[in-house]
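Anyone have tokens for Sphingosine kinase? Sequence:
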Amino acid sequence: MTGEITLFVNPAAGRGRGAGAARPAARALREAGFAVRTVVGTDAADALDRARAAVRDGTGALIAVGGDGMASLALQAVAGTGTPLGVVAVGTGNDIARALDLPVRDPAGAGRVIAEALKAGESRAVDLGRVGGRWFGSVLASGFDSRVNDRGNRMRWPAGRLRYDLAVLAELAALRTVPYRITFGDGPGSETRELEAVLVAVGNGPSYGGGMRICPGARLDDGLLDVTVVGPCSRTTLLRVFPRVYAGTHLDHPAVTVRRVAKVTLRAAGVTGYADGEPLGPLPLTVRAVPGAVRVLIPPLIPR
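Reply: yep, here.
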């Protein structure tokens, strides 16, 4: 199979790795017989307009080169269209690629995976979360996690992972619970609960923040969202439980509960929701699982 495909590039991803990653990925695709063109926008809105134009023009695939922010932006262009998505993950977090068992920080390897999948006609339909008109692939965070993101976005130094770690420490010093009103489900079978929580995370996929498995049971093909609620706890308890999030073993702690639903509405004053690491806006937000919303190019031998 040959044809034109589109690289959707964030040159600033991974502290400059995005631009460099596009070259080996493009080389692997061209060596496999594909014509490759590159889309780089002047800003996120311009980049998305260009990606949507490529999809409308019939590109054979849209390949996001960058981190979760770039993959999430690409989702806005391809979700519901039938155009497959490829991911060359070279950002800081790369949780969307991790959930799909795709190469991370290996642009040439990712390019070869995409080429093999295209030649074999291999793509996997996966679920997405949707908030209004916005799609997301990994986790929607609120509460402690979103305040960490708020603080990290205000910081100008340091760069990368250390900025996030410092923001975590600062928010731990100011730890407080948030009064939530959460509606699980939809229609006559729905349930609304008022509760105090340190954080509430809604997972289409299992992880955020570069491998923190906050919703370790979340699957990309079950048509459901995993809602992880961390209830009131002390700083000491949170510090003790926090490292367990990387292994996904925190769910047995009595402060942690999980619900699996197709729809959830989060209400809380003064809290911003973040999905795929990008701000969605203040709560209230209603999140829906959309089964099979996008097709992703995967290695032909990955089991379904």
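Residues 136-291 form a domain with the Tumour Suppressor Smad4 fold (CATH 2.60.200.40).
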